[in-house]
Design brief:
This protein is of the alpha+beta class. Helices cover 33% and strands 10% of the residues. The chain has a two-stranded antiparallel ribbon.
Length: 79
């Protein structure tokens, strides 16, 4: 899952502007921090290029599934 969130850094902690899904509880997440001022000063074309590069980079962590793969929740819970 990829998601862009806003947060405020305060007293050594990040305070998210919205709550995360409870399914993420206890999971380790990787964060990429970009200061808002950096984004605001870039042109729309630069932002699109930045997004493209980020998603291109993130593909190395994506799992390749066979075309006929179907998720089975019951099977996953048996493990």
């Amino acid at each position: 899952m990829n998601k862009v969130l806003q947060a405020t850094y305060l007293n050594g902690s990040l305070l998210l502007d919205e709550k995360l899904d409870t399914a993420l509880e206890g999971k380790k997440l990787t964060l990429i921090l970009v200061e808002d001022a950096d984004i605001a000063s870039q042109s729309e074309v630069d932002l699109e290029e930045h997004k493209r590069q980020f998603f291109e980079w993130s593909q190395q962590y994506a799992a390749k599934l066979p075309p006929d793969y179907k998720f089975d929740r019951e099977e996953a819970h048996k493990r």
